[in-house]
Specification:
- By secondary structure, the chain is of the alpha/beta class.
- The chain has 2 domains: 14-91 and 281-301, no CATH class; 102-268, von Willebrand factor, type A domain (Rossmann fold), CATH 3.40.50.
- It has helices spanning 3-12, 24-38, 50-56, 68-84, 121-135, 160-168, 182-196, 229-232, 236-245, 257-268, 290-298, and strands at residues 14-15, 86-87, 102-107, 141-146, 150-157, 201-206, 221-225, 248-250.
- The strands form 2 sheets. Strands 5-4-3-6-7-8 form a 6-stranded mixed β-sheet, sandwiched between helices. It has a two-stranded antiparallel ribbon with strand order 1-2.
- Helix 5 (121-135) links the parallel strand 3 (102-107) and strand 4.
- The model has no long low-confidence stretch (mean pLDDT 82).
- This is VWA domain-containing protein.
- Residues 103-208 form the VWFA domain.
- Keywords: Membrane, Transmembrane, Transmembrane helix.
- InterPro entries: UPF0353/GerABKA_families, VWF_A, vWFA_dom_sf.
Length: 308
C-alpha cells in the first residue's frame, strides 16, 4: 500500500456499528476488579511499610504481564472492535440497478420537417427514440425539446409509451421561439440528470448545430445526426458541435445498427447509479481480527492456565 493510499484509507476509517465500542467500558471494569481481587497483598499495604512488604512477599517484585485476565481483556477488546465493523473502503452495491437514466434532446424546427430522411427528419428522430425505448425497456428516460429556447417535456420515467406520445405531439409551430438553443437544451437535460442523482446520459437528435463554446455538459452526450448518412458524416457544423460537447457522433443507418450501438453506450456510460433507497456501502474488515482472536483463545487450552 502506497503512502497516498494509506493516507486515504486512514481518512475514511470508521466503524459501521460504533456503539458496540461502549462494551469496552465494562470489560475494563471487570479486568480492574479481577486484578484487585487477585492481589493478595492489597490488605497488608495499609498496615505494613511498602518497602518492607516487598521483602516479605514471594514474587512481589514481579508480576506476570501475560496473565489470564490480561489475555481475556485483549480478546474481549478485539472481539468488540471486530463486531463494531471497522471499515475504510467502499464497495459497489450488488443490487445497483443496471438501467441508467437518459435524456432525449430533440430539435423541433422547420428544418426537421425536410423529407430527405424519410418520412421527415423529425419523424425519423421519433422512430429512433421509440427503438431506443424498446431496447431500454424499463430504463428511466426523459425528453427535452428545443428550437430558439429549451423546454422540459417529460422528466425521466420508465413509461416509454408516455414519452412516445409526448414526442409524437411535438411540432415546430408549438415552439414559442425559432432558433437553435442546443447549448441551453443540453444544459437543461444535464441539470435534470444531476437533480435525479442517478447519473445517466444525453442523446441529442438534431440536423444542424450552431457554433458553440467548448465545455463538458456534465453528463455523457451522444449527437444523433438527423441527416442522410452521406451528409451526416461530412457535416462540419455537427462535427464541431460534437467536439464542443465532447459528444460521440452517431450517424443513421439503414438497419438498426445505429440504435443498437447507442443503446449499449447508454447502458454503460458513466458510473452505475446507486440502488434505490440505498446509500454508500462500505466493506467490513472486522473478520481480519478473527485469526488474532483464535490465537488468544488457544491459550485457554494450556494446562493450569486458568488456575494460574
Amino acid at each position: 500500500m502506497t503512502g497516498g493510499t494509506l493516507t486515504a484509507a486512514l481518512a475514511q476509517f470508521h466503524f459501521l456499528r460504533p456503539w458496540w465500542l461502549v462494551l469496552a467500558l465494562p470489560a475494563l471494569g471487570l479486568w480492574w476488579l479481577q486484578r484487585r481481587e487477585a492481589d493478595t497483598t492489597a490488605r497488608w499495604r495499609k498496615a505494613i511499610d511498602p518497602v518492607l512488604l516487598r521483602h516479605l512477599t514471594i514474587g512481589g517484585e514481579r508480576r506476570r504481564r501475560l496473565s489470564p485476565e490480561n489475555l481475556l481483556l485483549a480478546a474481549w477488546v478485539l472481539g468488540i472492535v471486530a463486531v463494531a465493523g471497522p471499515s475504510w473502503r467502499q464497495v459497489p452495491s450488488p443490487f445497483a440497478q443496471a438501467a441508467r437514466p437518459a435524456m432525449f434532446v430533440v430539435k423541433v424546427t422547420p428544418s426537421m420537417l425536410e423529407r430527405d430522411l424519410a418520412p421527415t427528419r423529425l419523424d425519423r428522430a421519433r422512430q429512433k427514440m421509440a427503438d431506443l425505448l424498446k431496447l431500454r425497456e424499463g430504463a428511466p428516460t426523459g425528453l427535452v425539446a428545443y428550437a430558439g429556447s429549451a423546454h422540459l417535456v417529460l422528466p425521466p420515467t420508465p413509461d416509454g409509451e408516455a414519452l412516445n406520445a409526448m414526442a409524437g405531439a411535438l411540432a415546430p409551430d408549438l415552439m414559442p421561439r425559432q432558433g437553435d438553443a442546443l447549448a441551453d437544451a443540453v444544459a437543461m437535460a444535464a441539470e435534470v440528470l444531476r437533480r435525479g442523482g442517478q447519473g445517466g446520459s444525453i442523446v441529442v437528435f438534431a440536423d444542424a448545430a450552431p457554433a458553440m463554446a467548448e465545455g463538458a455538459a456534465g453528463a455523457p452526450v451522444s449527437l444523433f445526426a438527423m441527416l442522410p448518412p452521406d451528409r451526416a458524416a461530412a457535416d462540419p457544423a455537427l462535427a464541431a458541435a460534437a467536439a464542443a460537447l465532447h459528444a460521440d457522433r452517431v450517424e443513421p443507418t439503414l438497419d438498426d445498427g445505429d440504435v443498437q450501438g447507442l443503446a449499449h453506450v447508454l447502458a454503460t456510460a458513466g458510473p452505475p447509479p446507486p440502488a434505490p433507497g440505498e446509500g454508500e456501502r462500505w466493506e467490513e474488515a472486522g473478520y481480519w481480527l478473527t485469526p488474532l482472536l483464535a490465537l488468544l483463545v488457544l491459550a485457554w487450552f494450556r494446562r493450569g492456565w486458568v488456575l494460574a
